[in-house]
Amino acid sequence: MDEPSSTPVSDLLLHPVRWRIVQRLLGRELTTTDLKRDLPDVPSTSLYRHVAVLIDAGFLTVVRERKVRGTTERTLSLDQTKVGRIDEREARAMTPEQHRQAFLMMLTRLAADFDRLVDSGDFYPRLAQLGYSQLAVYVDPADLDAIREGINAVLEPHLQEGPGKDRVVLSFVAMPDD
Fold first, then answer.
1. Partners of 77 in the β-ladder
2. Which residues, at least 6 apart from 15, have a Cβ–Cβ distance to it below 8 Å?
3. Which residues have C-beta within 8 Å of that of residue 82, sequence separation ≥ 6?
4. In this predicted structure, which of 2-6, 100-104, 113-117, 149-153 has the lowest mean pLDDT?
């Protein structure tokens, strides 16, 4: 594959199906069959089309292929460095409505994930892996950059699956409060 698509991040990820694909692939490798199982309401042709768009844009990578009953099954991986990190140029190109839509999509998926955990019957045994809180910090732009760099450095070693490791999704929001 040559250069990633020049399609803006907002156009790519503000589509609800592509957003759901990206969320399912956070920190894991899945086959297209796994995605079909996880997203049963999305028609197969639509799912494959959206996966192709994300591959062309460089968000998804095909890490393995294997033949299954005369067809090729692809195992996909997500480039987590691209997801959820919109650079300042891209953020300035987005309209306020696009920012609102992206934020609401994230909150909606977060609420749906929480509901799924609560309804799973596995809630109390996994309570130690659950946390939610809010706090205020006082920072200038350089402080905030340093905090983000520090968080990225702490999280980097934990972005890959490993034996005995459970998948935990962390969501961070930094918002001016003036």
1. 29, 61
2. 50
3. 9, 58, 59
4. 2-6
Contact present, 5 and 96 (Cβ < 8 Å): no
* Closest C-alpha to 68, from 38, 33, 44: 33
Helix (H) or strand (E) holding 66, with range, is strand 60-68
According to DSSP, the β-strands at 60-68 and 71-78 are antiparallel
Instruction: Look at residue 2 in the predicted model and tell me its pLDDT.
Output: 41
Question: E strand or H helix at 62, and its extent?
Answer: strand 60-68
Q: Which residues have a Cβ under 8 Å from the Cβ of 47 and sit 6 or more positions away?
A: 17, 21, 32, 35, 36, 39
Please report the DSSP string for 70-92 in residue order.
Answer: TEEEEEEEE-TTTTT---HHHHH
- How distant is the alpha carbon of residue 85 from its chain centre? 10
The per-residue pLDDT for range 20-62, each reduced to its tens digit, is 898 888 778 999 999 999 999 999 999 999 999 999 988 899 9
* pTM for the whole structure: 0.62
**The CA-based dihedral angle spanning residues 8, 86, 114, 35, taken in that order and rounded to the nearest 10 degrees:** 40
> In which order are the strands placed within the sheet that holds 60-68?
29-31, 71-78, 60-68
Residue 97: CB atoms within 10 A of its CB come to 9
